[in-house]
Amino acid sequence: MDKHLKIAVIASECVPFVKSGGLADVVGALPQALRELGHEVIVILPKYRAIDEQKHGLQPFLSPLGVWMGNTLEWCRVNSATTKAGVPVYFIEFDKYFDRDGLYHDADFRDYSDNPLRYAFFTRAALQLCRDMGFKPDIVHAHDWQTALAPGYLKIWHWADSVLGNAASVLTIHNIGYQGVYSADYYDYTGLQWGNFTSDKFEDHGRMNYLKGGIHYADLVNTVSPTYAEETREPTYAWGMAPYLNDKGENYVGILNGVDYSQWDPAIDTLIPAQYSPEDMSGKAICKRELQKHFDLEVDPDIPIVGVISRFAKQKGLDLLAEVIENIVNDMAVQFVILGSGDKGLESYYGKLSTWHPGKIGSYIGYSNELAHRIEAGADFFIMPSTYEPCGLNQIYSLKYGTLPIVRATGGLDDTVAQYDERTGEGTGFKFWHLSSLAIYDTVGWAVSTFYDRPKHIQQMVQRAMGQRFSWEDSAQEYVKAYYKAIENKKAV
Ligand code: ADP
Ligand code: GLC
């Protein structure tokens, strides 16, 4: 069990280089934690336009890299950089696919129509890079549909390869709502051979499905919380993948994400107006005041603030919140601060709320890491009414910032937040089960009335929440176990 493993992580985003959501946080933190456990990890990313070469010190690494896609040989270049923690990162540079403003979609939130080509190419190029540089991984770790072809490529093309032939594969599903389902017209370009276009592998109702192929070929599949792993074994949550996940048996597991506490800890956070800790909470009051000022809210320490930081996607349940948020601020003495972007309808609605309810609701439509930190620090509560949530990171950040989560009890939200018990004051947040705007209204009401009527309980919960620890070290150890299991599975074939 002590062997030092060589791991190639292939992913479509990674902090601090480029981020659209929690996937980037995970791909940024896990390799570092694995390295601290003594393993050798490299990360391979696409070189998007958004990546600041100067800031991150990208250097030319290899040119040219030839990648066979179907019958086409594509030529690209590779850059490299090293993270502060010493993890080598390689960037596949291919302007035809990655030199554009967005990662996955254009400014109007429309997916790029060539996404199947872009990510098939990227995944294949990443494996080719391992070959060209002689990096012989024990594990190739793919993330989400974008790189889910990696396990298939390994088994179909590289099984006898001197560099990649021994690599076992792990596929992490961060979100089963996105599977990479595209017209079979693109299948030729993937080079995965028509014999594999069958309903247990890449075929999905006549289309091709990248994630499904990944589930089939990976030596081990995991998702990012135990509850989501259970939920996705049932049809309701699995978007058609339940039978294939169930076929994996014990080779489909849930591993809870950790948090990078070097970035998300109010005691050392330099992006917030004042630091604070469980021993000295005075800084949190300053953060709250500054947040109220920043959003032109009534400056009053006694009015609770509920924070939202989110992609505006159906998954996040913000359409349900939209149905009741105005009733909530009309009926209760509470303020909201909202940060997010995505769905254009929700952007327009939440963007206007601050003019419709001045002093009570503040919103910023867009992406701002700094503001995200300031909201975590300044708010009293943090709401995530998700329809489903594979893990969720913001509620875990909220715990650390003493900002009590109000969550729908699903996936990782259920695993990380303990329900408030008003008899004893136990718990770390407020959970509801029913997916409805009424449940949101009631649960916010419950949190707000607790804030006013049982402040002692709130204080106890804040202390308890801040004491919770979801460290990457623990999660990385789980991943190492998963890697060994994948290696065993590969040997057994
Ligand atoms: P998901 O990956 O589904 O979006 P997570 O809760 O796992 O959900 O992770 C979201 C991450 O993205 C968090 O780190 C959060 O702070 C960040 N984030 C989301 N939207 C924004 C935004 N508009 N501005 C800044 N950070 C954001
Ligand atoms: C996905 C999920 C989110 C999870 C993140 C990182 O984007 O929606 O719940 O925390 O990936 O694993």
Could you characterize what this model shows?
It is built from 19 helices and 18 strands. Helix 15 links the parallel strand 16 and strand 17. The two termini are 20 Å apart. The strands form 3 sheets. It has a 9-stranded mixed sheet, with helices on both faces. A 6-stranded parallel sheet has the order 15-14-13-16-17-18, sandwiched between helices. The protein has a 3-stranded antiparallel sheet with strand order 8-10-9. With 493 residues, it is an alpha/beta fold. The model has no long low-confidence stretch (mean pLDDT 97). Alpha-D-glucopyranose (GLC) binds next to helix 1. The site of adenosine-5'-diphosphate has 18 residues, from helix 1, strand 13, strand 14 and helix 14.
Low-confidence stretches: none
Tell me the number of strands. 18
The residue-averaged pLDDT reads: 97
CATH fold-level label of the largest domain: Rossmann fold
What compounds are bound to the protein?
adenosine-5'-diphosphate, alpha-D-glucopyranose
Shape: globular
Label the CATH architecture of the largest domain. Answer: 3-Layer(aba) Sandwich
CATH superfamily of the largest domain: Glycogen Phosphorylase B
Overall structural domain count: 2
Level-1 CATH class name of the largest domain: Alpha Beta
What structural category characterises the helix and strand content? alpha/beta
Q: Tell me the span between the first and last alpha carbons.
A: 20 Å
Radius of gyration: 23 Å
Helix-residue proportion: 25-40%
How much of the sequence is in beta strands? Answer: 15-25%
Query: How would you write the strand order of the largest sheet?
Result: 3-4-5-2-1-6-7-11-12
Number of helices: 19
Largest sheet: 9 strands, mixed
